[in-house]
Design brief:
The structure holds 2 protein chains of 2 kinds.
Chain A lengths: L2 H28 L11 E17 L5 E16 L4 E14 L12 E15 L2 E15 L13 E14 L2 E13 L6 H6 L14 E12 L2 E18 L5 E17 L1 E2 L3 E3 L2 E9 L3 E3 L9 E3 L5 E7 L2 E4 L4 E14 L18 E14 L4 E14 L11 E13 L1
Antiparallel strand pairs in A: 1-2, 1-21, 2-3, 3-4, 4-5, 5-6, 6-7, 7-8, 8-9, 9-10, 10-13, 11-12, 12-17, 13-16, 14-15, 16-18, 17-18, 18-19, 19-20, 20-21
Chain B lengths: L1 H25 L10 H15 L1 H12 L11 E8 L7 E11 L7 E11 H9 L4 E18 L2 E22 L8 E22 L2 E10 L4 E9 L2 E7 L7 E10 L1
Antiparallel strand pairs in B: 1-2, 1-10, 2-3, 3-4, 4-5, 5-6, 6-7, 7-8, 8-9, 9-10
Helix pairs in contact in B: 1-4, 2-3
The chains are: A mainly beta, B alpha+beta.
Amino acid sequence: MCSVEKRDTKIAIVSVFVFYCFVIMIAPLLLCAQDVEKGLLFLRPFYSLNLSEGLNLFSVGQNMLFSTNLTQDLGVMLRLNDDNSLLALYEIKYTGPGIRRQEGRTFVDRYMNHIFFVEHQRNISSIVLRSKISYINELSRSGANEAWGYGLYDFNSFGLNERVELNISKFKISINGNLSYFTFPNYIDLLSELQQATTTQETLSGQQDNINFGGGIGILCGPWAASLSLNVRNYINQKVIDSSLLYSDAKQQDVLLTLLASYVLKTNILKFSPEIKLNVKNSNQNYVHYKYFGDVSPQFIEKYYDYIGADFLFPLTFIISNEKKISFIPEIDLKFYTARPPRDVNNNFLRDSKQYQHMYNLTLLYETKMNSITSCRLFYTYSLQTSNNKFEKYIPYNFFAHSLGMSFAFTY
Amino acid sequence: MAGKIKKDVIGVCMSMSLLLFQASASAQKESSFFNTPIGMETLSLLSDIITSPMMFFRDLHIDTEDMTPTPANRYVTIKTNFSPALLPFIIGNVNVKAKILPEKYLTPQVDLSGNLSSILLLNILSTVIKDFSSSSLFYSIGSIFAKTVAYKTRLFFGGEYSSTDVYFKLPQPLTIAEGLPAIDTIAGRVYDFTLFSGIEFKRKEGKYLVAQLGYSLRYRKMFSKIMLSGVTELGICIYPESPIVFHPVFNMQVKF
């Protein structure tokens, strides 16, 4: 047995051992559901398995694509006493092609996520304090020769989140702060490799590692809700390209400001919940454009990644019965780049205008509950994207698509 | 004597069909099937399977495995997979599950499960084709913990160790179709540690709906099973990362 197999075997044996220790130690605790009024533990498990299969028909590129989404949530809520409770959740999710595994030249990206979090909730009179720690592991395959665990965009994230909820008169106010650390163990900087191709320097990894922190405030008053949040992402190693076409000493920093407003109108037969979201992204990173390999006159574009976005969602649901619903969901997603010029079909920048992308989606959804744990959804979505960027050799910017799908959810 | 004749007839039919397949491959240039979209898709599918045959056999092994809990009022369940294992791949298989601890107020139900399978088709071929050698053994052993959480609803989880071992060597390389690699020898062993969890809903007396998801620790491979279970069991197994994503499954079982 080679060393890789020995390592895999050890990892697997340790994992199974840890699993069985968890079962032996935690199971009696988990299964001890006793009365809260007597001041003892109360436990409620949560389980959800969601399987979705979709067919996407595009007007350009790979005309027909099947997609699969498989998600399982395992959770448990432990009520320690009247004021303290603990919530733990594990989610595993797969997103990728369906019906046939697409490999070779028809390869389609696929992702797998493992998400853990533990949240403690404490009630102090009319204030609710929620403290959460989380871990996210995302594995990706963006190429046919990438095995799981070796994806360029694989990342690990460790996060802390603190949230305070207050009830003041008829308003419910929430204030939250979060801190996350992202690592991309396999990411390499292609521009640096291109620039330093004649040296024997090791490929520069860790360029996407970053520390993300932010906070926000939300207000809920009856059917109205609004929130404002700010997230700052500081890259640990990634430097900013300046007008000399080389990396400067400044580290990359991205700032995202989000404003969200929504309203819910619900009657016995109707639910209408419009939502408006505004995003403003600001980054100090710039872009160097090599039109072709060996281009000796690359173009420098400042503030290439900055944009203003607006997302409008107007879902309308007709409640036919306790088990059946029909929804009609139009969505408009607009993105305007503040400094990025669009390209023509020959990959030349058109400096007299700025790039925009508009996406319009229209979804029809039918949902039915088949029994106490099973629900089924059938959906159809029409999508239309338009942009003034006409260079579509690798990524389409102007297209329309029809998506049909079915999903089953098994939930307790 | 009659049994031996039957075995010989089956073996001759199998080898005839293999020869016919090779004959059709040699006439493939004139055949229009592989030039059609379905034919090209079939070629692509066969190519995927030939490139990674052990993962395909592992998927068939998972189809035969039983990772669901024994009904509360039963002690032993014996199950066999008719499709796709027995038909068309002629994989003889049996799964035995026994309740070790019944469910009580504080403790879950604990079951032990074991599976044993073998590709009988290879055994038959090796007796009728000269210089054809083969062996195959699939087995797994695991445990399942189940707990009632609501009326007619149980949650369960568990883990298992499994091994899928296949070897066969053809007397001469076989090319199924032009463009596919020639098959000469297939040999490999896949051993795996799998964790799984799911939900069981009792539709009627003796009839259940079971949905579960499993994750292979060694290969980072997910799979899901959705089954309607009674005297027979009908369902679907989903392998997102496999050449054939959906495997319709039909089992028969006896409960004591």
